Amino acid sequence: MANAKFASFRAFYPYYLAEHSHPTCRALHYVGSTLVISIIFISIILQNLTWLWWVPVAGYGCAWIGHFFFEHNKPATFKYPFYSFLGDWVMYGKWLQNLLGIK
């Protein structure tokens, strides 16, 4: 499946989840996504756009640590940047719904 071409996000998402099966990898993605939201919020509150330089560092940094040290695979970002970006936020949203008990 690593060389598969995906015609839709719906077809891609099961692959994305399989590439994020290690709990620590997923946790690092959640930390990175939370940091991204926090940094954007801080940037808006402080009216200081220079904070936005930290968005890719926080988001990708946490995710890539999870892949390289725990999942032992290459992030899907390298092959499927758009679907991977979308997959991260869908996974994060589902995690938040579960955390908050929302069905």
List the main descriptive attributes of the protein structure presented here:
single chain, 103 residues, mainly alpha, 70% helix, globular
Fold and architecture overview:
With 103 residues, the protein is an all-alpha fold. The chain has one domain. Helix content is 70%, strand content 0%. It is built from 4 helices and no strands. The chain has helices at 9-18, 23-46, 54-71, 81-100. α1 crosses α4 (81-100) and α2 (23-46) runs antiparallel to α3.
Main pleated sheet: none
Report the portion of residues in β strands.
under 5%
What coarse outline follows from CA principal-axis ratios? globular
Mean pLDDT: 94
Unreliably modeled segments: none
Question: What is the number of domains?
Answer: 1
* Element string (H = helix, E = strand): HHHH
Number of E-state strands: 0
Q: Name the structural class.
A: mainly alpha
What is the tally of helical segments? 4
Intertermini distance: 30 Å
Proportion of helical residues: 55-70%
How are the SSEs placed, and which strands pair?
Blueprint: H1 9-18, H2 23-46, H3 54-71, H4 81-100
Helix pairs in contact: 1-4, 2-3
